[in-house]
Write a structure and sequence with these properties.
24% strand, binds S-adenosylmethionine, alpha/beta
């Protein structure tokens, strides 16, 4: 049976707060060996290959229902689009559910404050994470590739249309590596969110370019990744470490009903 990384495996004095997140995270050591050690640890201890992928979502369904923030969210998916070249955001992925429910849990337990904060979600896909952030009071810009925006807009409109919405939502095109629109950058966001956005080696540098452009010294980035490809994750960590401090949020801090040994959650701040 795979165990997960809990605080018991990590010395207390290695845990610290990062950015605007009040929970304790394990900061990755800033040296050449650190990314490879992180990969060994994740694959060694969590043993992601032994557990079922996407246990919180059904990627063959046209609709995913999830309770969050006192509502029943309904997220439309397009399973038939998934096979098209380059299309990944037409269905939900576990890391999105983990990140969305983590945000809810962190706000409920006063580790995080999203009310009135500017949030940019990268590679929003079907939009679940940003919808939860907006329900928690954030002003969310959902971004993705141009051909992903139709389904994203539908989901945002269907789930965030009530007059009692605490936050706000706007859907925008943002191709990683391109210059972001001025309104995404001015002012720079308080938070950047991304779930399952580290999955292609070709896209890593463009993703980092966008993270670097959007991240100020007051910005906190949350990235939830699927433990699917160790090479891509290691490549990302090696490159990201040059620009960002990277901390791992242990599963003890996640929503207790939405933990998965196939998912890792990082918080990043600008160096
Ligand atoms: C695996 S999906 C994850 C979707 C969603 N975040 C989730 O967790 O369900 C990756 C997302 O990144 C987007 N993406 C991939 N490459 C991109 C790029 N170069 N620029 C902007 N978005 C990109 C995809 O369109 C897709 O929505």
């Amino acid at each position: 049976m795979a165990s997960v990384l809990g605080e018991s495996e990590v010395e207390d004095d290695e845990m610290t707060e990062m950015g605007s997140y009040r929970g304790k995270v394990k900061v990755l050591r800033d040296d050449q060996e650190s990314p490879a050690e992180e990969i060994m640890l994740l694959w060694g201890i969590q043993q992601p290959t032994f557990s079922k992928p996407n246990s919180f979502v059904s990627q063959s369904s046209l609709q995913l229902r999830l309770d969050a923030c006192g509502r029943s969210l309904s997220i439309l998916q397009s399973p038939s689009s998934l096979g098209a070249p380059g299309v990944t955001g037409s269905v939900m992925w576990d890391s999105g559910v983990v990140l969305g429910k983590f945000l809810e849990h962190a706000v409920d337990s006063k580790m995080l404050m999203l009310q009135g904060k500017k949030v940019v979600e990268l590679g929003a896909g079907c939009g679940l994470v940003g919808c939860i952030a907006a329900l928690l009071g954030a002003q969310v810009a959902f971004t993705d590739l141009p051909d992903r925006l139709r389904l994203l807009k539908k989901n945002v409109e269907a789930n965030l249309r009530d007059g009692d919405l605490r936050g706000s939502a706007v859907v925008k095109e943002l191709i990683w590596g391109d210059e972001p629109d001025r309104d995404l950058m001015e002012p720079l966001p308080d938070y950047i969110l991304g779930s399952d956005v580290i999955y292609s080696e070709e896209a890593v540098m463009d993703l980092l370019d966008t993270l670097t452009q959007l991240c100020g010294f007051q910005t906190t980035i949350f990235l939830a990744g699927e433990l699917r490809n160790d090479t891509v994750l290691e490549y990302f960590l090696e490159a990201a470490m040059k620009v960002f401090v990277i901390g791992r949020v242990e599963q003890t801090q996640w929503h207790p009903d939405y933990c998965s040994s196939r998912v890792v959650l990082y918080v990043l701040t600008k160096k």
